[in-house]
């Protein structure tokens, strides 16, 4: 009979046998469920011979980097290096408006930064890094079998082939037989905080694809603050787990408004919240009017530069979950 306790035991044994008594493992963490669970499992199996790397790409959510860092190190005891590469990412994103270009820049820069950081670890004296950890789940395994080669329809940011080759690493994927709900159960079993276990998915390119138009520090600041208010209110209303994914996006147009006695011409925040099981189809979440009123009032009052808030009521299909 399959139980989660037994899975943890056998998986830890399997990792230990595969990695052996002296080899080391590196892996990227993002704060998402999959990479966190994979990292914690690895830590349980081989302790500090697992090195996690968190790359701050400058387009994570408000205070997210700090929160993820503390959860992983103080909370879970994982051996973690944090790299602040935000300037490098933002410099490369300057002037870029096309969403696919944003994705490519962020994906490629991530690989460069990660590789540079990994090289620092592997070149430490006595280090014997042999494996790269990936939090691949069963559905990802199926996807990569059924779509052979690069496809325009898959938005990849985890292009690890080159990484493995350049660094002569072998892949280790302890979650490759699990579905999402099983990963959450495993996470709970390993003592990962509820907040993290039930976290909404967050795209690799982060809020860069939620800022329609150029990604500047000012726009990032606005998008982060608006998003944070929306998520805070969702949590306060006890709706976070009912919703599959929610976020604020910043539209690239301005609207007129009256703030105090002043006529302003400021930005528009679009809120999106969906329910879905497979992320292939999705329905917008039916908030009550009072909730939306509260969020809109707070955003307009608390986020300078925003004078209007709209809520997206488009299903997927035809609308996608993200705006870009
Ligand atoms: P769409 O917008 O295609 O999104 O309906 C479906 C799911 O995929 C996520 N998404 C991404 N995740 N890199 C990612 O890691 C990306 O470039 C990307 N684009 C979309 C989206 O957040 C949703 O969960």
UniProtKB/TrEMBL annotation:
Function (record text): Catalyzes the conversion of xanthine monophosphate (XMP) to GMP in the presence of glutamine and ATP through an adenyl-XMP intermediate.
Chief localization: cytoplasm
GO molecular function: ATP binding; GMP synthase activity
Organism: Ascobolus immersus RN42
Protein name, UniProt field: GMP synthase [glutamine-hydrolyzing]
Section covered of the full-length record: 220 to 543 of 543
Residues binding ATP, per UniProt: 30-36
Keyword Ligase set for record: yes
Top-level class of the enzyme under EC nomenclature: ligase
GO CC field: cytosol
Catalytic activity: XMP + L-glutamine + ATP + H2O = GMP + L-glutamate + AMP + diphosphate + 2 H(+)
Keywords: ATP-binding, Glutamine amidotransferase, GMP biosynthesis, Ligase, Nucleotide-binding, Purine biosynthesis
Pathways involved: Purine metabolism; GMP biosynthesis; GMP from XMP (L-Gln route): step 1/1
Coiled-coil residue spans: none
GMPS ATP-PPase domain sequence ranges: 2-199
Record note on quaternary structure: Homodimer.
């Amino acid at each position: 009979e399959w139980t989660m306790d037994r899975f943890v035991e056998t998986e830890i044994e399997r990792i230990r046998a595969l990695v052996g008594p002296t080899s080391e493992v590196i892996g990227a963490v993002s704060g998402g469920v999959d990479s966190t669970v994979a990292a914690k499992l690895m830590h349980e199996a081989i302790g500090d011979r697992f090195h996690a790397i968190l790359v701050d790409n400058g387009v994570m959510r408000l205070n997210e980097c700090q929160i993820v860092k503390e959860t992983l190190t103080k909370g879970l005891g994982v051996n973690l290096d944090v790299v602040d590469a935000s300037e490098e990412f933002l410099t490369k994103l300057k002037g870029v408006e096309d969403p696919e270009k944003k994705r490519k820049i962020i994906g490629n820069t991530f690989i460069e930064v990660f590789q540079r950081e990994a090289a620092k670890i592997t070149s430490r004296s006595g280090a014997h890094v042999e494996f790269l950890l990936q939090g691949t789940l069963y559905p990802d395994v199926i996807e990569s079998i059924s779509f052979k080669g690069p496809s325009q329809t898959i938005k990849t940011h985890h292009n690890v082939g080159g990484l493995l080759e350049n660094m002569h690493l072998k892949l280790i994927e302890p979650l490759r037989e699990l579905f999402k709900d099983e990963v959450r159960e495993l996470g709970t079993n390993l003592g990962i905080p509820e907040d993290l276990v039930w976290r909404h998915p967050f795209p690799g390119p982060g809020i860069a694809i939620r800022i329609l138009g150029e990604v500047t520090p000012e726009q990032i600041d606005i998008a982060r603050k608006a998003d944070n208010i929306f998520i805070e209110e969702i949590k306060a209303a006890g709706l976070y787990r009912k919703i599959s994914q929610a976020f604020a996006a910043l539209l690239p147009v301005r609207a007129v408004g009256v703030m105090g006695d002043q006529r302003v011409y400021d930005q528009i925040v679009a809120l999106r919240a969906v329910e879905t099981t497979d992320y292939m189809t999705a329905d917008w979440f039916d908030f009550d009017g009072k909730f939306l009123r509260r969020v809109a009032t707070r955003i307009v009052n608390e986020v300078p530069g925003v004078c209007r808030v709209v809520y997206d009521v488009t299903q997927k299909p035809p609308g996608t979950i993200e705006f870009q």
